[in-house]
Each structure stands twice: as C-alpha cells, then as structure tokens.
Amino acid sequence: MTLTLRQLRYAQAAARYGNVTTAAKVLHVSQPSVSMAITQIEDHFGKPVFVRQRGSGVSLTAFGHVVMAKARQLLADAEALETLGDADSGLRGELVLGCFEDLAPYCVPSILARLRRRCPAIDVVVREEGFDTLGRHLDDGATDLAISYDLGLPASATATILCELAPQALLPSDHPLAARETVTMAELGGEPLILTDQAQSWQHVLELFHLCNVRPTQAIRTGSFELQRAMVANGLGVALAYSRPYGDFSYDGRPLVRRPIADPLPLQRIVIAQKARNALAAIQMVFVEETKRWFDEVWPTIHADRPGRSGAAKR
Prior knowledge:
Blueprint (H helix, E strand, L loop, with lengths): L4 H13 L2 H8 L3 H15 L4 E3 L5 E3 L1 H21 L9 E9 L3 H15 L2 E9 L1 H9 L5 E5 L7 E9 L2 E5 L12 H5 L3 E4 L4 H11 L7 E4 L2 H9 L5 E3 L14 E5 L7 E8 L6 H16 L1 H4 L5 E3 L5
Parallel strand pairs: 3-4, 3-5, 8-9
Antiparallel strand pairs: 1-2, 5-12, 6-12, 6-13, 7-10, 7-11
C-alpha cells in the first residue's frame, strides 16, 4: 500500500475544516506537512482530490468525496483494530452524519450526548441538510449515515425504521377547527395551506391531499418548518406536520394547536440509512445502536400523544 494512514488522516482533517492551516493546527503539525500529504494522495490517484482556494482554503472534488468516504472507513477500521480488546470506551474515530434539517434539533444533540458518555473518543460531524442533498451525499459517500424521513433516499441506501408517525394538522389556537377532536382533509383543503418549500416535503403533503381527493384552495410556501409554524400561529393558514418541538408555541410566542386527521393516511417513517454495499465500521455500529435506543426510549415520551409506533424493521 503506497498511501499511509498519516496521509489519509491529514487529508481527512483538511476536508473536515476546509482549510489546510486549520487542519495543521488541529493536528499539531506544520502546514506544509498537510499540503504534502494532499499532494502525495493526488499523485497516487493521478487526479485532483481537492480544489485549492485562496488563503489555503480547500474543498473536495466529486472524486475527493469518494476518496474521503473510503478513507474515513479505513481510518475507523484501523483505530478499531488498535483497540480491539478494549470496551466501547476505547473506540475512537470520526463519522459524518447527515440529518434532515427539521429532525436534527429534536434528536441529534441528545443522541450525541449519549454517545459521548459511552464512547468519548468518537467524533461525529453533523450536516443538517434538505432531502435533495441528503440522499445525494449518502449515495456519493460524503456522509456515512443519515437520519431522515423515508423520502428522497437513493436506491443504493438501506434503511432501518426508527419510528412511524401519522400526520397531524397545525391550526391557529383560535381557529374554529381547533375546537374539534379531529379534522378532515376536506376541511383543511378549504383553508390557506402553508407548505415548507423543501424538496420532497411539499410534494409529499400535496400527495396526501390527492389521496383524499382534495385540492387545497391556496398554497403558501415558507423556507423552514419554524416559519411555517409561526405563520400558522399568526392565523395565516393551516399546515400538516409529522413532528413538533416540545411545546406548542411559535418563535414569537403565539400558541398553535395540533389535531389528528380523521382520514386514513399512510404513516411516515423516520429511518437511519447507510449505503447498502458499505459495511458499517465499529464506531458507526455504536452510533446506530444509540440512535435506535434513543428512538425507543426518548422519542415516545416526546410524542406520547401522537399515533405511531417505534421499531427496528428493514426497508
């Protein structure tokens, strides 16, 4: 093997921080050492792995994403080999987690805290992404694992179901429908519908209306889940959502209410996904275990009043 683990480790740090100087400081080596490692890797492959930018900034090429994904797995396996006889606390290494941007605040910090207590030497790089980039980065190896709704994932991915949720209506607290125990899609279709302008998301919501032969009278799009909730709370329309923050208040302090949908609608899955042909490294397996435990133990307490079930089935 002409490439060394040191070269790969230096290049991995440069990819993570997007800057050769910063990577060198973190690694406690000279900047030329990191630059030389990158050059040697590119000479080995005969094609660029990084795009150089002014001020020693770097970014990965498409080929570089593939190389660094393989490098992360190789480095993780090498570190796991060194600590083969140790307990979980001896595991060390880095994994890159992609998480759908609306789900990340719910679960990722708590999962990371649990993981740190179990394996403090595992470093997780978190990327909050939309459905459009989440699946692409999982497919090209830029991320090792992804937590997401089961929307837009590539055919190359395999997914473990973490939980299943039914959609609920979001309504202004003073809306007439808020006094009802349940609402129908037809009733919601007569109100201005507020959608999040995220790839796959708004199409999925409209498909739910289509399944009930309902066409919304008007659709307003927002850039984020929190803006959607705030617009509902301020009486600008209604919305459909699968999950919610703890407490039914928007950012500006206005209340909103959730009501179950009376129509039979398919449940949506939250999954943790990986590229099917990639064997999980030890640190990734530990992360998957902690994620499944969190969804089994904590998620039901957050969503105790919501229909749905948790489990660990395969797609």
